[in-house]
Amino acid sequence: MSNGLFNWTYRDVIEFLKENDFVFSNEREGSHEAWKNIKTGAMVDINFHGQKSFRPRTLETMICQSKISKKIWREWASR
């Protein structure tokens, strides 16, 4: 499980997005996936690299793309 905004894995991000109304939209080039929010239309581009944690700046980009506040991401991570 993640710790704040550190140590988020692909699985953590996908679980969070699914709980917040995102669905898999399509696979992009290579290991990139697009996830779309069915209510807001926000798109999140995720680069899948196995069990490695995302770098904080990469996660920050996904947070901005999701249009969900960092506070909600942190709260989800601390449960």
TrEMBL record:
One of its GO terms (molecular function) is endonuclease activity. InterPro entries: HicA_mRNA_interferase, HicA_sf. The keyword Zinc-finger does not apply. Transmembrane segments: none annotated. Gene3D superfamilies: Hypothetical protein (3.30.920.30). It comes from the Bacteria. Pfam families: HicA_toxin. Keywords: Endonuclease, Hydrolase, Nuclease, RNA-binding, Stress response, Toxin-antitoxin system. The keyword Amino-acid biosynthesis does not apply. Belongs to the HicA mRNA interferase family. This is Addiction module toxin, HicA family. It comes from Candidatus Nomurabacteria bacterium RIFCSPHIGHO2_01_FULL_39_10.
